[in-house]
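Narrative summary of target 7.
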Amino acid sequence: MDLEEIAKLVRSCTKCNLWKSRTNAVPGEGPSNAKIIFIGEAPGENEDLEGRPFVGAAGKLLTKLIEEILGLKRNEVFITNVVKCRPPNNRDPTEEEILACSPYLDSQIEVIKPKIIVTLGKHSTSYIFSKASITFTSISKVRGKWYVWKKGEGVEIKVFPTYHPAAALYNPSLRKVLEEDFRKIRSEIRKENSKGYTIEYFLGVQNRLRDKGEEGNSNGGK
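Modeled conformation, tokenized:
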């Protein structure tokens, strides 16, 4: 299953009552090889109208943080929500809605295989923590720190919780906290990128080039 197939399932989903009031389901957007996934809680009014995640005021702030602090383009990361349809009047999603909808997110994570997951707000953080067997207390206590989700043999995803951008719109004092958290993410991205230039990496390149050369010689002798 690929991301487009998951998106089709989301758009036709009737697993909870949110489908009855939605204009559009919002599967998420971004490349299938994204190194980072940003996960919010649920679409708002603008997202429901457009069928795209984070396109309202909170989305503009998220895009600004991604582009200006992380130095990435929005289309280089994957952005989605735990719940794919807008709850009426932008209320919090219920446990039942999260339970019904979260398998789509699980499938997206399986397809993308990100290095980093950034959870935005308490609902996405609580959900990802439950998957990773990490105790969730409150977003204010767990935010701004790195956690490791050991998904399987040799598979680890770094998880970074922070406030939802909407929280910074309602409470401007959180804007600096959010910016500080994104600078921590930037440092981790740079650390991840630098791993590509270790001695082991260059040895690996040399070995691969040698193997290709041997393979070419072998084929040429046939």
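Confidence is low (pLDDT under 50) at residues 197-209.
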